[in-house]
């Protein structure tokens, strides 16, 4: 596989754009013409076409370098996006080991890991990194193990401690979030950090999801897709920077909605960490402009139907109620009423 | 998710306790695990397929093999007898991935471990990590007699309480002298766990600092019938088998992890019940027992039990 990395920005001039190939492999989240919450968990193993985002454990795509540059900017402005409570040190090493071994195996042309006992050498060719360190010895890395590896890996990462029959948000690298704050949620348990989600608690979703997650086994990760809507291709839609991106929601017009309204999809996966017994929760963000999405006719038809029929409280929670009429109007031009095929992949 | 491992060592540690070492058949490294984890060992005992959970006692970071210690239970259902009598070095056994229901709470200021008899096993793995780290810890082990005590390499600072030497554990005294922020871990018989936890509660230990692990072997009982509505089958559960084992024998799908009433994975909805469910698990809350059952350990007395399986 050859990847050529784009150099684009997720802020300022918003020069981010998907190639045709990136559009085709976009993880469209709707497998039918309507949406409601469910515990839509499935085993995280290879699925879909050869280049689908589900083929490798930690997907690397054309935006890798751009996303890592954006993370560095966000961290420089606000170091609290990366936090780890003291008891999560071992879980950080667990995550480093998991990502390094997975990437070196899945992308041997991009990454290499050499291990001689506790003496490790890590090579990240796209980022020009060649480091030697001692496994489990924090002093041999330039920063903590979780920060070190997540500065080199696309997607946000929450590390959850498992105790008292619950999961605790006790560490994370969160710079591309859909309007939630690690600094606010740090130390909260599963029910506390999910408290703002409408409906789901009454539906018993969280009890079932927690029971599932507490029993995720090592070597058997799971995944699900989640989604929201974002105006402009911006990774850092955090509460901390709301003054920067919140007003942009009001900048949509019938003329620019196709270009500036993005479907934001999170590929969430869940991994038992063997040394700490914690749970790693990567949240990988993919962005696609409506005008690009509708180039796949099935997706244009389906997205129109889903957003048109979505209950109002869900549209509010996902932050696009104010723009829904504009979006649905635009998408209706790509919905001829024809039936759509089951599943998420293009026909 | 079972993997075939080769039994490479069978070493008696005491008259009733034997250590077994399992390695990858081709010598490949096994996944690391965390202290307190157990594995499921599958045994083909004549016509009966047994699956018993055993705590891993080897160093969690040592990927060259997994070790377990098995106490022979002459009155048990047969799993430990099979391990003692039938299992031989060279044999291939199917072993599940490590699962941890008894991890240390890393927010603790100190770890206080109390083991009764063979309940020492999960702590042996914890000790490998604790002696390397800088967390404070204490271990108390009670055993009936020195003659029965397995030959284990316990750290010198572990406290040994032997019934026949008059050094019985004074539980209130052990629990009273602990610094704030200490977490308590107990593993042993049901009676011993209950006694220690009762004492701790009486002394005002916060509930979130109390941890216990008791592996429930599915106790035998009177045979009974169940109706599985989804698969539309009637299943007979024999005196010596669990409901979960009977479902598996009939090819009816039921997920499982611990098979000991602790993890919740096999939780099954009860659609109709004319009789009494004998709940023996540690998982279901009192209000959940009205319409659910854990088939790994619980049984039934009555005329009709219909399950959502």
Provide the gyration radius of chain A in Å. Answer: 20 Å
Q: What is the topology, as strand order, of the major beta sheet of chain A?
A: 1-8-9-10-6-7-2
Helix share bin of chain B: 10-25%
Q: Which whole number gives the mean pLDDT of chain A?
A: 94
Overall form of chain A: globular
Protein architecture, described:
Chain A: Pfam families: HODM_asu-like (PF11927). Chain A: This is DUF3445 domain-containing protein. The complex is a heterodimer of chains A (347) and B (309). Chain A is an alpha+beta fold. Chain A has helices spanning 20-24, 64-77, 89-106, 145-150, 182-185, 190-193, 205-214, 242-245, 257-260, 290-293, 297-309, 312-317, 324-332, and strands at residues 42-43, 82-84, 111-116, 119-124, 129-134, 156-163, 166-173, 222-231, 261-272, 279-289. Chain A is built from 13 helices and ten strands. In chain A, a hairpin with a 2-residue loop joins β6 and β7. Chain A starts with 19 loop residues before the first helix and ends in a 15-residue tail after the last helix. By secondary structure, chain B is α/β, with parallel strands linked by helices. Chain B has helices at residues 79-85, 121-132, 171-176, 190-202, 243-249; strands at 2-12, 17-23, 37-45, 48-55, 66-71, 92-96, 99-100, 110-116, 136-143, 159-162, 182-187, 210-213, 224-228, 233-237, 268-278, 292-293, 299-307. Chain B is built from five helices and 17 strands. The mean pLDDT of chain B is 93. Chain B is globular, with a radius of gyration of 20 Å. The chains are: A alpha+beta (347), B alpha/beta (309). The A-B interface holds A 87-88, 90, 161-164, 211, 214-215, 217-220, 274-277 and B 1, 31-34, 36-37, 60-61, 97-100, 103, 105-107, 208, 257, 263-265, 267.
């Amino acid at each position: 596989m050859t990847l050529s990395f784009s150099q684009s920005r997720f802020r300022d001039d918003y020069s981010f754009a998907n190639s045709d190939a990136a559009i085709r492999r976009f993880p469209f989240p709707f497998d039918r013409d309507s949406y409601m919450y469910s515990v839509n968990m499935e085993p995280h193993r290879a699925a879909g076409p050869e280049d689908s985002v589900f083929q490798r454990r930690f997907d690397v795509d054309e935006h890798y370098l751009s996303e890592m540059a954006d993370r560095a900017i966000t961290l420089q402005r606000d170091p609290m996006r990366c936090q780890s409570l003291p008891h999560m040190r071992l879980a950080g090493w667990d995550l480093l080991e998991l990502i390094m071994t997975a990437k070196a195996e899945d992308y041997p042309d991009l990454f290499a890991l050499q291990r001689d006992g506790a003496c490790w050498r890590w090579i990240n060719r796209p980022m020009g990194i060649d480091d030697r360190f001692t496994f489990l010895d924090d002093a041999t890395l330039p920063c903590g193990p979780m920060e070190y590896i997540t500065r080199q890996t696309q997607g946000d990462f929450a590390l959850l401690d498992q105790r008292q029959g619950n999961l605790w948000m006790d560490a994370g690298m969160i710079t591309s979030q859909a309007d939630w704050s690690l600094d606010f949620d740090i130390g909260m348990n599963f029910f506390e950090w999910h408290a703002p989600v409408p409906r789901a608690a009454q539906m018993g979703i969280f009890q079932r999801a927690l029971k599932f997650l507490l029993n995720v086994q090592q070597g058997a990760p799971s995944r699900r897709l989640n989604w929201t809507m974002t105006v402009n291709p911006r990774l850092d839609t955090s509460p901390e920077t709301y003054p920067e991106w919140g007003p942009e929601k009001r900048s949509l017009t019938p003329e620019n909605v196709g270009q500036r309204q993005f479907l934001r999809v999170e590929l969430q996966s869940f991994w038992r960490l063997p040394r700490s017994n914690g749970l790693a929760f990567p949240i990988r963000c993919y962005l696609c402009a409506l005008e690009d999405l509708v180039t796949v006719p099935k997706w244009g038809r389906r997205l129109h139907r889903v957003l048109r029929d979505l209950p109002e409280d869900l549209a509010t929670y996902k932050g696009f109620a104010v723009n829904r009429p504009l979006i649905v109007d635009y998408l209706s031009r790509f919905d001829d009423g024809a039936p759509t095929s089951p599943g998420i992949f293009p026909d | 998710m079972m993997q075939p491992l080769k039994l490479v060592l069978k070493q008696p540690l005491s008259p009733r306790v034997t250590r077994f070492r399992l390695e990858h058949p081709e010598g490949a490294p096994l996944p690391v695990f965390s202290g307190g984890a157990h594995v499921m060992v599958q045994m083909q005992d004549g016509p009966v397929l047994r699956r018993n959970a055993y705590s891993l006692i080897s160093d969690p970071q040592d990927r060259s093999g997994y070790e377990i210690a098995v106490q022979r239970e002459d009155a048990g259902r047969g799993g430990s007898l099979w391990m003692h009598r039938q299992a031989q070095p060279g044999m291939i056994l199917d072993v599940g991935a490590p699962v941890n229901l008894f991890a240390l709470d890393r927010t603790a200021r100190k770890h206080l471990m109390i083991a009764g008899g063979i309940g020492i096993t999960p702590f042996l793995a914890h000790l490998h990590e604790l002696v390397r780290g800088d967390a404070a810890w204490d271990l108390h082990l009670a055993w009936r007699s020195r003659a029965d005590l397995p030959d284990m390499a316990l750290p010198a600072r572990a406290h040994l309480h032997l019934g026949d030497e008059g050094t019985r554990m004074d539980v209130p005294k052990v629990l009273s002298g602990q610094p704030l922020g200490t977490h308590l871990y107990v593993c042993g018989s049901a009676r011993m766990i209950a006694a220690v936890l009762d004492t701790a509660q009486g002394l005002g230990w916060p509930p979130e600092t109390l941890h216990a692990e008791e592996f429930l072997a599915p106790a035998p009982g009177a045979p009974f019938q169940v109706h599985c509505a989804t698969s539309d089958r009637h299943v007979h559960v024999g005196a010596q088998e669990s409901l979960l084992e009977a479902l598996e024998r009939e090819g009816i799908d039921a997920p499982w992890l611990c098979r000991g009433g602790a993890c919740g994975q096999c939780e099954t909805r009860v659609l109709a019940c004319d009789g009494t469910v004998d709940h023996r698990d540690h998982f279901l809350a009192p209000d959940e027992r009205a319409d659910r059952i854990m088939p790994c350990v619980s049984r039934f007395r009555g005329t009709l039990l219909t399950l959502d399986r």
